[in-house]
Specification:
143 residues; alpha+beta; Alpha-Beta Plaits; 2 domains; four-stranded antiparallel β-sheet; 5 helices
Length: 143
């Protein structure tokens, strides 16, 4: 996979909000041409960053997905850079800053354990990430 730039991350973010958005709407939202969006989408699919387009389903209807919370410690002033990189990972469903011993909390979702393992390796390889702790979410007891 190629490193993601700011436009890639903004495109992925826009697709998270509406995976069915037309290319023209994405181009207008991102301030680029339709050809640029089309080329970026093609590259992100070919290099495996975008694995496909899917529907969001209520958790109870998708019980076999792997869900987790990851606490992330970032060194020094690397937080903005780490956030930017994490935003580009489609498996990161939400990202929060926090206080205490951890700097960030990421909500993760993947379809298999091997995909989850690769995701954790990606997160740990982000410049500035010095420590992480992950807990799998097994079942929801309150919504």
């Amino acid at each position: 996979m190629l490193p993601l730039d700011d436009l890639d991350r903004r495109l992925i973010s826009a697709l998270r909000a509406d995976g069915r958005a037309p290319v023209t709407a994405l181009a207008r939202q991102l301030g680029v041409t339709r050809a640029t969006v089309t080329a970026r989408l093609a590259r992100l699919q070919v290099d495996g960053t975008i694995l496909g387009f899917s529907v969001r389903v209520h958790e109870e209807q998708d019980p076999d997905s792997i869900r987790a919370i990851t606490l992330i410690e970032v060194e020094g002033r690397s937080t903005d850079q780490a956030i930017s990189q994490l935003r580009g990972l489609p498996e990161v469903r939400a990202l929060h800053t926090t206080n205490g011993g951890w700097d960030l909390v990421a909500e993760l979702r993947t379809d298999t354990l091997s995909h989850f393992d690769r995701l954790l390796a990606q997160i740990r390889s982000i410049d500035g990430v010095v420590n992480s702790e992950t807990s799998l979410l097994l079942s929801s007891v309150i919504d």
